[in-house]
Amino acid sequence: MMSEAVAQPARRLRRQNFAQRLFAEYGQELVVLAAIAVLFVVVTLVNPRFVNPNNLVTIFSGNAYIAVAAIGMAMVIMTGNIDVSVGALIGVLATIAGTLAVSGYPIWVALVAPMFVGMAINAVIGVLVAYARIPAIVVTLGALSILRGGLISVTGGTWITDLPPDFLIAQKRFLSVPVPLLFMIVLTVLAFLWMRYTAFGRSIYAIGGNREAAVATGIPVERRLVTVFAIHGAFAGIAAILFATQLQVIQSTVPPNLELTIITATVIGGVSILGGSGTVIGSTLATILFATIGSALIFVNVSAYWLRAVIGLLILATVLADMWRRHGRNGAAA
Amino acid sequence: MGRTLVSALLVLSLSTSLSQAQSTWTGGDDLPTSPLACDGTPAEAAAQPYDGGEPKNAPDRKGKEITVVDVPKLVGIGYFNATSKGIAEAAEAIGNMDAKTDGPSRANIDDQITLIDNYITSGVDGILFAANDPVAISPVLKKALDQGILVVGYDANSQPDARQWFVNQAEFNGIAKTMIDSMAAEIGEDGSFAIVTSTFSTPNQARWIAEMEAYQAKCHPNMEWLETVEAQEDNILSFNQANTLINKYGDDLDGIFGMTSVATPAAADAVTQAGECGNVAVVGLATPNAMKPYVAAECVKSVVLWNPVDLGYAAAHVLRAAADGDLKPGDTSVEAGRLGELQVINGSEILLGAPFVFTKDNIGNFDF
Fold it and tell me: Given CB atoms, is A331 within the 8 Å cutoff of chain B?
């Protein structure tokens, strides 16, 4: 029964041409990409300034820190887990980076410390999820309160100012490409390749797709889960750096609902909320789609209320599409 | 098919959006506005009956030495350090008044109530407060009034009958006037501006914007109001939105208003990073510390708020005037030292006066 279900689509795939295979495998990513393209065409027709180089930079690098955080989130969700504490974690890590930078530590220490602290914190979350078998939503809700409360009581609501100019890497360009954009593209591609072509990467899908089967094939599921959470923490650390260095001051609060924005991006990008499928290319494209919609609404003079409505519709449609695809697959197998 | 659905929805929602493109949203609310006079003449105070409380069987304190405790929302932060500095300054100037500040170490209403209760027991002549919660603090303040203690609030009010007077740091129309006047001074009478706010439904911001709209139409009719964009309380989104405004309008954009302490520095950073300092002015509500880098770089010239030192200074003067019987229910103004005559508004509130504009010359004196 099981082997049939797996074998069936594979047999079908062989008969399909390249375009069909591409669509079967990366359907959601292509839909998001198409949506971005349609928006660009329509809005540019309304107002050609939409595609002026400065606005392209605003669109493509404005949400880069969300995209980077969504890479780690995508991995966690693919294993069938979730993390609702990442927004607060990014706030804490940004504050740590800023505090180190203004207290005279070398800049590189301030820039890499968030990655390691993020890994350490999320490794603890991973241990609680994997070994203590507490549902991820419960553990990370707890972590959310702890991190958010800790952030407020430690900073007392004050902002970090007087950041050294060398620390503000998100404002810099490398070979005329804005650094946040560079980070987003390079990390997305690397993570995509790693997940697709390495044994560890593929085991992430296996764990989320069918945990028992993953155990049966000898994947050390618990250890892998802890590692995936730790990697997610490292991405949160990089996201925190991009967040902290974009402006000359670091706020002691994080954008409201940042974790939801990150989760939404992964889901709209095609990562199944039930685990087991999706790519980080999709989540990155989804963050670009959000930025495109946000900018488009201003360029065509529409209230930002629409942004939320549109994103809400997108979530619903994506989840429905995901369920419909699963249903179709199961139907074919039966 | 599911995917087709998604694309269909996107295109659909976009086309609906386009059909609405004509109606520009200012972000103001629909409540009635009361723009101030263009030349700054104080608005005629509508005669409103006194609605504050009164201390019971208060002893005659006229000209006598009084001890006062100041209980802010919390201590140890720059803002309330500044208000207690103002209170201390006033106490020294007044002479026959001994004031000290003692507040909770975190902005917690239970801690604040306990603290006030202890001071009632130990016996003071007056209490100054900035409430962590307007309703929850009221019973303990009424208890103080019942025991003949003078009670005056500042910064954050209680229920009116739980204190005698409240020093109101700024009214919506006052902030609106200062914002628009500052912008007009920077970009000229025919300049055009856009606004970055938190959300259109945030009450304070919507009120300020509505008053700004009314005042601009009345006193600077040739300024052009481009549009208002939302940015939550999100600094990166504020930055992106300000960038998008700069990208969209190019040379047609002369100024950006920031309506929150998050949006204003982010807008200033967008202008800085776009190399538009000097071409696009930023005027906004913000706390001075967050704005110092931009003001020092001369990218931002006017940061609008109120002066917390003056706020504490006024509160102490109001309490002394109430003790001396110089400020009684029904009075329309009160003398407040170097601040001059302050107006009584809304029955039992004292208006601090025009908002304070932080500039390159004075912003270094503030730390909050």
Answer: no
